[in-house]
Structures are given as C-alpha cells and as structure tokens.
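Could you help me review a protein record that somebody else here produced? Here is the record exactly as it was handed to me:
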Amino acid sequence: MLRTKNFWVIGGDPRQASLAGLLADDGHGVHAFALEQGEGVRCEPTLEGLELADCVVLPLPAADGEGRLNAPLSTAAHTLEEIVGAMRPGQLLCAGMAGKGLAELAGRSQLVLKDYFAREELAQLNAVPTAEGAIQIALEELPITLHDARVLVVGFGRLGRALAPRLRALGARTWVAARSYAQRAMAEGMGLETEGVDRLREWLCSFDLVVNTVPAPVLGVEELAAMKQGALVIDLASRPGGVDMSVAAALGVRVIWALSLPGKVAPVTSGRYIQNTVYHIMEELGV
C-alpha cells in the first residue's frame, strides 16, 4: 500500500463512490466532488484545494456523451475544463477512457494524464463483473433457462473469454464467433463450439441468446434479419456498439445495450479494481 496521499475523486457512478470509501479506508486523505448522490459520500462544495492533490481520479468514462464530466451522481453539470483549470502543472490525473478532448486539455495544462482503463490488469479484471452482469440480464429477460439454451458469444477477447465459459458452466449450449483462428482454437480448447464472424448470417437463426462483445459493427441488417424470432441480443460493446439499433427496432429484434455493467452490478469490487490500478500507476511514477 502507498504511503498516505491526498486524493480527489471527481464524478462518476457508484464505482467512484466506492473508490472514495476504499481510499479513505486505506488511511488516505480523500476529497470527493460531483458525487453528491453517492451512498456514504461527503462531497466538497468547490474545487478549492484540488491543486494540492497527489492524484486526481476522474471516472470511467471521463466524459459523458456531450463531452462534459461524466457525473450521473452529481446534482449539477460540470465541464472537464473546470476540473483541469483548477489543477496545477505536473499533477497526476487518472481517468478511464480519457479521450482526445481530455488529453488535449491535460497537455495544455501540463498535467500527467494516465488512462487507467488502458491498463491490462484493469481490463482483465473488469471482464468479470461485466460477464456476471450479462448473465444476470439474460436470467431476468429470457423466458427460458440458460441451461440448454443455445447461446452465441460474438468475440473472444478478454470479455468473451470471461463470459463464454461461465455460460457453458450454467448448462448453456455455447458457441463463439471470432475472426481470429487463434481465438477460435482457444475457445475450442475450452470445449466451446466456434465459427467465423463472417458467417454469422448463415447460422444466427438457431440461437436463443446472442451476446456481442465486439466494439465494431457486427450485427447489421442481414445478421439481424436472420435471427430467430423471440431471440434476445445483449450488446456489451462500448460506444458506438456492435448492433445497428435502428434496424433491430424496425425488425422487432429485442436488444439490450448494457453499458458500464461493472458500476451497476458490482460497484464495490469494480471500485477496488480501479483503486489497485491507480496505486500501480502511482508506484510506477514514484508519486
């Protein structure tokens, strides 16, 4: 554990609220801002003193869809410029999915910006609550059991590797669609059936549940038109997602775009993952 430090946790969802508590439990000085509706969080009314922080932690993602600070638990809107403008040159700013806009702001203010979501340790661990959250959605939304259901996982990266074996362990007849021969071989080594993504439209008609993990367009008009009536699609991909939502609506295909599942289904665990990753960054930088 790091020596006692001064942290500011700014914005975000229940993950960041949990992060503030976890940092305080470790004995650090913790200031929270734009988390007024977070459970058990006492927030600062202003950013006064932000320039004294050893580390400022922004949420995952750092910005909302309008380019403002991502702060669903705040009672007011805040800009990234507001946060960066209150910091001093040389300060460490950690953010998830920082984005080009924040990178430019940090560069002009001479901040040390580190994207904790780009770290492999967080990406690997984050796949676990995401996979569990997807399974929770499937159990709640499907009119059948996962046991003996025909399930397709599109993509076999970190998330696909976390999800597909868990589905199979619940008794689902699980297939994996992946472009890479190596990924398909890995899936087959786990006892999973596989096929290439380029052949999706030929065999989607047999699945009760399709879970997309690929953050690129993979389920378009041809694929969605081929789906079994009553099938459920869960899209776990970050924006812009992997499903053509307008086509799905026109065809009557039920799609749930499940963004930021770790913060919804396991905020304490997810907050701890972020905490440990920020610690690793600080240790490497000697902060």
